[in-house]
Amino acid sequence: MVAQAKSSRITLDPAQRRFFADDSRVQVVRWHRQKGKDFCAAGKAVLHAMETGQPWFIVSLTQRQADATFDKCKFWAEYYKDRIGEIIVKEEHLVGFDELGNAFRYTARSMTLPNGGTVTALPGREPDNLAGLTGNLIITEFALFPYGGRRHWRVIFPLITRGFTCVVISTPRDPSTKFDELCNQPELYSVHICDIFQSIAEGFVLTDEDGERTTIEKFKELYGDDVGFEREYGLKSTGELDALIAWAYLESAAARGLGRPFNFMHIKHEKGWTPGFFRSLNIIGRSEYGWDVARHGHLSVIWCNTGPTGDKHLRALVVMQHTSFALQRQVICEAMDANPANVGLGDKTGLGEDSNETLAAKYPGRWDGVNFGGTRKSDIASGIYTAFRDGTQSLPAFKAVGGEPSLHAEDIGDQYKFIATDFYALQRVAGEENEFDDDGKARIKVTESKNALWPDSHCDIAYAGGLALRAGHAIQMATPRLNFL
User: Fold this and answer.
1) Which architecture, in CATH terms, is 4-238?
2) pTM value > 0.85
3) Helix runs in 3-158, H state only
4) Which of 217, 259, 280, 331 has a CA 20 to 30 Å removed from the CA of 154?
5) Is the Cα torsion angle 30, 33, 35, 40 positive or negative in sign?
């Protein structure tokens, strides 16, 4: 499977040979683990630089991975030493800046060939630090890059403008990533896909811990992780294996929201709030609110649902970061005051307890809070799952019609897609459905993974939506305070 040095010869398997022969402008390589992605990419860079004298840049997410890939480049250079001649290897210690302006140090390692060609490997966790480069490009494990790789793609792709080549390699992760998007556009890009089954069909031999030949079934049993095997060796996207809500359901929800009104507001450090926001929406009829409360580490999110039972639409979303509780309460109170029929449910866990008690007293019969401890989070997750599975909750279309949101599209990929990816980050906990509700139905247990398009969220947007759904079902007008869950 992996190209190996055998005395004076390197052997490549069929998939690796197809990759080496490809001279397309953009090449996308989706191979299973230990297929030799970095090894082949390093060889391709060295050989092409040797033949053309052009520069190559290999961008990895971490310093460790950049160094490991450069060592593979040195292997290839040593292998072709008789043809290349002596190379000059150097290290350059640089200082970069993250998105908050904080300085960090990193090292770029490079080799210069006698014909002037160069191969440089460097970490690229911040895309703006790469903007001044020009040449051929290899991006390693692209599916792991923050924000789904979209910020990096926007900055890095122009490096190949003057006729250079871009090679993107990875095993899959989330289907909302830029890497997955590239893989699904073979009409635009040259896509190389090879899972473990194809490798074996083309002659690869699996071995056990003793180096003896084994079968896929036994190897999978030795691995002991069915989900991991399907992702790392079967090339299935992570989310399709353990996401609470299949991506297809979220796309359908966004399609149902096409053309329906939606307003978004982002408040950060007390800035961005416009009083009168909710009143200006001119919503006819009752709105149902969910408020996931946070102060520092997580997002504080207010979700506004409108529409009759069976057709709930996300009409407005307010996301607050590092915002005082005083301003947060001002925002949610304006939402409730916009219509005397409005109802809401909030997260009163920990920091949210005081605010939710205040709201419950101010809006008796219309507001209550819920503690996410015990089985409550499972109940919220079950409601979210049911709403998207049954098609009763719609989301704003990924491509917005109308004005720009406060959080600019270049920061989140397609406008409003970050809402869907927040739900997609809810992961079902396998084998843990051992608690039952009053109707005898198994409760869904979930955990939170990272939102690929808004990493600051810990499924805060999704839980706000779940609270709004629960408020719509549980709260009835002209009733005393209820135990909603």
Assistant:
1) 3-Layer(aba) Sandwich (3.40)
2) no
3) 14-21, 37-52, 63-79, 81-84, 150-156
4) 259
5) positive
